[in-house]
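Chapter summary example.
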Amino acid sequence: MVYIYKKLIAGKPYYYLRASERKGKKIMVKDIAYLGNSLEDVKKFLGSSTKYKEKIRKAYKTIHNFIESNHYAEKVESLKLKKDIFLDKNLVEVEACRLHYTQVFQKDDELTKNEIFKNFVIEFAFNTTSIEGNTINLKEARNLLGEGIAPKNKTLREIYDLQNTEKVFFDLLKSNDALTNEQIVKIHSGLMENMDFRIGYRTTDVRVIKANFKSTPAPYVLTDMNLLLKWHDQNKNKLHPFVLAVVFHHKFEKIHPFMDGNGRTGRMLLNCILMKNNYPPMIFHKKARSDYLDALRQADKSNLTKAEKENYFQLVQFSAGQLAESYWSIFL
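The structure predicted for these 332 residues follows.
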């Protein structure tokens, strides 16, 4: 396997074609060619190389993603944006995704955009439901949502789980509704259709398993949701839109306003806020579930109306990495 490796020396980039190979239990890594110190040099080398032609072709997707993501990162760096205390160095990574999303993806034809969103929602539905224990794998999710082929030996609840996620996501794409209690309840109801009859904010207390926080007592759920929506409105022009979405997601989870489906709803709301602000939707990956939960736990130290760097830095940094991973693999 070959890929491009970028090394910074005194702030100047140097690009190498690097090969990795498994030998027994070890993975051997070796730089096999120097590509230059600019992306233009890299492109020239890749276009003219005969020695590594086959290896480069096999790794085309990985190499293309690297070049494009770095190209848009360089564009963002040239803008000299105001620093963000939550995103720190990941500001460039997040803004590179947004720049490509608005300048390239959103200007594509509707058929292509719908196909890419379809690919996104399959990956999103698989990951967001898997985090909550759904056992349908990615191949089965592709067959279900892409071909209409239901997986064998899976419950109807698990099947509805993915189908509901797809429907709610595409409904949000067409919606310009403001973020309100009514919209949140509607999103939750859509996600839980045929799965849980308990619609609307809960009226009984709920215990969040393995959590280090106490969810909002039932009589105060609506009060806290109103406070959260007020916090959102007060901070939407103060916080970076990505930070706003991530922090909102955590605070929503801490309130835990529904009897079930809070995680699924919270991740859908995060993407709702991102897309309303012209940022691409993102995926929290199942494979990173442990890191995701750890970052949420760190943020639990904050209260409902605060967003301190020391509590949210880990979650924002982690989320930025997840955005970049899902964006360049799906939307490019």
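To summarize the output: The chain has a mean pLDDT of 95.
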